[in-house]
Design brief:
The protein is mostly helical. It has one domain. The chain is built from 6 helices and no strands. Helix 2 crosses helix 3. The chain is globular. The mean pLDDT is 86.
Amino acid sequence: METAFTPLQSLGGGVLIGLAAVLSMALLGRIMGATGVMAGFFSPTGLIDWSWRAALIAGMVSAPLVIFALTGSRPDIAVPVSSSALLIGGFIVGLGVTYGSGCTSGHGVCGMARFSPRSIVATQVFMVACFATVFIIRHVVGG
């Protein structure tokens, strides 16, 4: 399995995620953890709370349309695994997010920037689990 290295796109994505995290904290006083945003979207505390969450989710979902409008071509999105692997992986990530009280954007971007000990440990656990998963899939299972 080949992994494409896209440094400029990765840098751009990282800058946008960081900017969104800073703006969320500065303007709303909220941590921009994607799973927390999504959970709050379905159980908002009021119209203002729902509105910013809806705008953020709409931005995430519509980004490929913006790329198409700017470049005239669809973003190349390749998923090199089966649908069943995606479902199983999504379920496992959902469990981790639930038991870890947050996701990689909440802990890894926002929590570590605030020097949260819980987020630093959670991010270390994420990374070790990722390294182990990639090693097992590529070198043990042979995917």
